[in-house]
Design goal:
Its EC number is 4.2.3.4. Its cofactor is Co(2+); NAD(+). InterPro entries: Dehydroquinate_synthase, DHQ_synth_AroB, DHQ_synth_fam, DHQS/DOIS_N, DHQS_C. The protein is α/β, with parallel strands linked by helices and 355 residues long. It has 2 domains: 164 residues, Rossmann fold (3-Layer(aba) Sandwich); 185 residues, Up-down Bundle (Dehydroquinate synthase-like, alpha domain), CATH 1.20.1090.10. The protein has 14 helices and 11 strands. Helix 6 runs parallel beside helix 9, helix 7 packs across helix 9 and helix 10 crosses helix 11. The termini are far apart.
């Protein structure tokens, strides 16, 4: 697959990715390389990466615990301290090998350490390949809310190696699939249509779909790097989805959802709101709801859950002038940004979802 030129960096795929990495390492002179991993990517992914890295630059491995609950400023402080202890300087390079937690947080750590050092992302989950790989967003959760502290700083490059997906569970794959479905819903109906029969998708086809999904997101981000306009389209499903994800993480007695699972719920709810606001046709809303529930099932939210989730919306970082902001669908493949919805229609969306 051809590399994709993003805004200030390139995204490379499979074997080409390692060739480009080695070429880059030969051209640049780094004092030391630091690989940031979690216990899973340290065991399953880094052993594949290291033999393919051709450099005489000394390196260190920094391992953190996996999980969204560790995507905090406290973890960053620990890693900044380790970097100092191991002699990291402004000529060091960080290579983040992991899912969205690692690439989001590793990018934030690199972009703030000594006012910014170079970093490369190697996403290892489907979700991070099609979402976190594009756009330069880095950050951590704060105050129990997702991605409240962060930067927009581009990596030197992103390397996507789809062979890492062989280590993922079906649940993790479905989580990543949600972002790919979102890309089709907001920008390219034909991309959405390709997922109608999941049984027909083999590994080679998946490679092509990943590249297409990355291209869709990249085209949007390139137009609006700092999210002042069309990039807000990527928030479809995320206003309610993030609130749902946060609410369930804060209540250990309830079963937490993976990011993509929560976004799938959010896309159904926000599709209903799109329909209620007179944008999306009912038949397209029902198509979206049916297809997503076939893949992700249904999560029941009682009245207390719904009220708590709605209360969390006020803290969403996408809000402007105290108003909750939505990206809503005009139709499959077309989005309308800077939309608002009252609590009544949001509550109604949960009622319809629970049917």
């Amino acid at each position: 697959m051809n590399s994709i030129q993003a805004n200030g960096y390139d995204i490379h795929f499979n074997n080409e990715a390692y060739l480009r990495l080695n070429s880059y390492l030969n051209e640049k002179i780094f004092s030391k390389i630091f690989f940031i991993v979690d216990e899973n990517t340290n065991e399953y992914c880094l052993p594949k990466v290291l033999p393919l890295v051709e450099t005489n630059t000394p390196f260190e491995i920094i391992e953190i615990e996996s999980g969204e609950e560790n995507k905090t400023i406290e973890t960053c402080i620990q890693i900044w301290s380790v970097l100092l202890e191991l002699g990291a300087d402004r000529k060091s390079l960080i290579i983040n090998v992991g899912g969205g937690v690692i690439t989001d947080m590793g990018g934030f750590i690199a972009s703030t350490f000594k006012r910014g050092i170079a970093f490369i992302n190697i996403p290892t989950t489907l979700l991070s390949m099609v979402d976190a790989s594009v756009g330069g967003k880095n950050g951590v959760d704060f105050g129990g809310l997702k991605n409240q502290i962060g930067t927009i700083t581009n990596p030197e490059m992103v390397l996507i190696d789809s062979s890492f997906l062989e280590t993922l569970s079906q649940r993790e794959m479905r989580s990543g699939l949600a972002e790919m479905l979102k890309h089709g819903l907001i920008a390219k109906k034909s991309h959405w249509e390709k997922f109608k029969k999941l049984s027909d998708i083999d590994f080679d086809t998946l490679d092509e779909l990943i590249a297409e999904s990355v291209s869709i997101k990249n085209a949007i981000v390139t137009q609006d790097p700092t999210e002042n306009g069309i990039r807000k389209a990527l928030n479809f499903g995320h206003t309610l989805g993030h609130a749902i994800e946060t609410y369930l993480l804060e209540h250990p007695e309830k079963e937490a959802l993976l990011h993509g699972e929560a976004i799938a719920v959010g896309m159904i709810l926000e599709s209903f709101i799109s329909f209620q606001q007179g944008l999306l046709k009912e038949e397209e809303y029902l198509e979206i709801k049916h297809h997503l529930q076939q893949i992700y099932g249904t999560v029941f939210f009682d009245a207390n859950d719904q009220n708590s989730i709605i209360d969390l919306l006020i803290h969403d970082k996408k809000n402007e002038y105290g108003k909750v902001q939505f990206a809503l669908l005009n139709r499959i493949g077309d989005i309308k940004i800077n939309q608002t919805a009252n609590n009544e229609v949001i509550t109604k969306s949960f009622s319809d979802y629970n049917l």
